[in-house]
Each structure stands twice: as C-alpha cells, then as structure tokens.
Amino acid sequence: MSSDAHATQVGAMIREAREQSGRTATQLAAEVGCSLRSVRYWEAGEVRVSRRYIVPICTALDLDPMVVLGLA
Fold this sequence. Notes:
Elements: H1 3-21, H2 25-32, H3 36-44, H4 51-61, H5 65-68
C-alpha cells in the first residue's frame, strides 16, 4: 500500500472513530494536544499522522495502534 493510500485509510479510521465517540475535531485536538488543522489534515489523508500522536489518538478513540500502523 502506498503511503498516500495508508494516510487516507488512517484518516478515515480516525474520522469514523471520532464521530462514533461523539467528539468534534476540536475536542480531539485538545485531548491529543495538537492543532485542529492537524486533525483535519489527518482525517482528509493529506498528511500522515506523526508517530508522537499515534498513541494519544488511539487511546482517545479506543483504536488499536497496531491496526492504525498497518501492522495487524
């Protein structure tokens, strides 16, 4: 899978989990400690999620980091 396709897939996972949790993108950004712009870029698949944010995002949204990283 290309890195662009992976970024798009991860972004879709994040958006779906965020919406299912009832959080706004602004709330997720505050919880994770990043900017709203970052969350929007990730969800759109425009940029890859930085490694430093993988665990906080997965913790906040109850996602498996191994799945998000494409290792499971």
